[in-house]
Amino acid sequence: MTHAISVEDLSRQVEQIFLAAGMSLGQAAPLARVIVAGERDGCKSHGIYRIEGVLRTLEAGKVRGDADPVAHPAGNGAIVRVDARGGFSNAAFDRGLPLLVERAAELGLAAMVVNDCTHFAALWPEVEALTEHGLAALVMCPSYATVAPAGGNRPLLGTNPMAFGWPRPGRHPYVFDFATSVAARGEIELHRRAGKPLPEGWAMDEAGRPTTDPQAALAGAMMPFGGHKGSAIGTMIELLAGIMIGDLTSPEVLDYLGTTALAPFHGELILALSPDQFAAGRPGNPFARAERLFQAIQGQGARLPSQRRFAARDKANADGIVLSDAESAQLDHLMARGLDAIR
Amino acid sequence: MTHAISVEDLSRQVEQIFLAAGMSLGQAAPLARVIVAGERDGCKSHGIYRIEGVLRTLEAGKVRGDADPVAHPAGNGAIVRVDARGGFSNAAFDRGLPLLVERAAELGLAAMVVNDCTHFAALWPEVEALTEHGLAALVMCPSYATVAPAGGNRPLLGTNPMAFGWPRPGRHPYVFDFATSVAARGEIELHRRAGKPLPEGWAMDEAGRPTTDPQAALAGAMMPFGGHKGSAIGTMIELLAGIMIGDLTSPEVLDYLGTTALAPFHGELILALSPDQFAAGRPGNPFARAERLFQAIQGQGARLPSQRRFAARDKANADGIVLSDAESAQLDHLMARGLDAIR
């Protein structure tokens, strides 16, 4: 059996679970918002399924559930810094957002660096927060060492997601958000649980040999998407969103946590670009021109990224989010677990 | 038979060809420099082979061989603009470089926009010009509509190259530079000339069906690298380095030129990031930490991108660039053609 619940009611319920587990409202509210946004958009892998990992990471003492992030304005520069102070990235991002928007609109281009955060959400909520302000956004972060560089045979890079957004006035934005590995680690885990072999080219075993066995893949390494090109982009993300911002790389994250079962601790790099500023004085309106490009893509039967997600969102906003009875029971169970943890 | 010629002598010879064809020294010198850099680095597809295309584009009146680019400083902002005034991108880039370096060092992050240029060079010379100043760089531009978006069946996107560089003090930088199509268009042309079939997955014919016939591929469309992910990155490049900067997209370039036989006319986006500024106040030296990442990549037998190119460069700098007699004769022929053209 299933039932529908409104986005607001589910957000409140998830927030209550985090508060019950001892988190501050400042940490719980933005975290609940992105988890429910994932559920709303039909991204089950970033939805309420993630709550358990949050509680596990809290219980392991690897994240501060009451951290109060501090944002440092860019001053005359282009870099807004937010110290997450060991809390989740979500509260930290929200703290820095107005400063980044202001600076990008002023300079044409600005960056937000989030340091010392626990990060486990998708990147598209942050990209969309910027497109809502008329800005284009490019966001990236490392994860844990689980991907072999092209030509290598051992885990070193993370699944290192990269996300991009372009504002579309009056419509859902153009947004992509993907791992720079062939598949997300969660997809390999899903194959393992289902007892299904992996497609060729996803992974190698501990000895560096290609494998389609999910169990061997989890013990071995995933492959970057697109061969040496994806591998190079994954390496760029380690450099820019790990090393350059003075935060952990994917191998350092794994050393620090000792497991991939806890949410990763690292930093995040967010670039915001103002099409209004970049296009100023040039012919044509950039937003109108972009629509013609999107029409040309869709006109040949190709999809824009995130189209499925936006369709799920429209449906959930109209009809509510559909949860199974098992999912509702799991939420009650997690509530009790949170309460237990702080007793 | 072959003979070796020094980088300096070959640069002077190529420069003379362009001067003979009526180009100004300001346009000829930077163009000769990047073409000889391609030849020196063993990138035959961006070496002296390209001279003929330059002359063809000049003869077609699609580039101004005597353009004097104008750089507009960023003022209080982060965007340096260079109007190439219908000349080649190379002279324009050189004009804006000191302004970009100064602004990126000051703000931590800055952009150069080159507008109204003819562009046909690789992007790595520009990336390396920035790494020489201790900056990381991300560079992109559109090209001509020759690539179908993932799920589509007709040419729309360009081969849209993306290049990245990270400075390595005392060493060649970390640099990648690749097309966001599976293969560069030149590689398909090389298969056609050699009468060899293409690998599967490179291209589709005019009817949108997969093909391994190079001739059918040239009449049809190339595929993006890495499926929908590469397609999304190619689209991002149209948006940021075409539309956002108020310059032509790949389909607009093809409309304007009516052919892929001339060098493309569009703009270019260059982002420069200062690791010193981004890492300030954080633990660890970013350049030393990056070396540990590179060692870990190479320690498992994987190569860094551009390693082969740098090895060719070191050899050419020591022993000269080796040209065949046919290549030397072709240079003489091109010199005569340039002189003819302006008579």
Structure in words:
The structure is a homodimer of 343-residue chains. By secondary structure, chain A is an alpha+beta fold. Chain A has two domains: 1-59 and 316-343, Hypothetical Oxidoreductase Yiak, Chain: A, domain 1 (Orthogonal Bundle); 68-181 and 224-277, Malate/L-lactate/L-sulpholactate dehydrogenase, NADPH binding domain (Ribosomal Protein S8, Chain: A, domain 1), CATH 3.30.1370. Helices cover 46% and strands 16% of the residues of chain A. In chain A, the strands form three sheets. In chain A, strands 2-3-4-11-5-6-7 form a seven-stranded mixed beta sheet, with helices on both faces. A three-stranded antiparallel beta sheet of chain A has the order 9-8-10. The first copy, chain A, has a two-stranded antiparallel ribbon with strand order 1-12. The longest helix of chain A has 19 residues, at 89-107. Chain A is globular. The mean pLDDT of chain A is 95. Chains A and B meet through strand 4, strand 7, helix 8, helix 10 and helix 11 of A and strand 4, strand 7, helix 8, helix 10 and helix 11 of B. Chains A, B: Belongs to the LDH2/MDH2 oxidoreductase family.
Which sequence of strands runs across the widest sheet of chain A?
2-3-4-11-5-6-7
Structural class of chain A: alpha+beta
CATH class of the largest domain in chain A: Alpha Beta
Helix content of chain A: 40-55%
The low-confidence parts of chain A are: none
How is the secondary structure organized here?
The structure is a homodimer of 343-residue chains.
Chain A: E1 2-5, H1 7-20, H2 25-40, H3 51-59, E2 70-72, E3 79-83, H4 89-107, E4 109-118, H5 124-131, E5 136-140, E6 162-166, E7 174-178, H6 185-194, E8 203-204, E9 210-211, H7 214-219, E10 221-222, H8 227-243, H9 250-257, E11 265-273, H10 275-279, H11 286-299, H12 307-319, E12 321-324, H13 325-342
Parallel strand pairs in A: 3-4
Antiparallel strand pairs in A: 1-12, 2-3, 4-11, 5-6, 5-11, 6-7, 8-9, 8-10
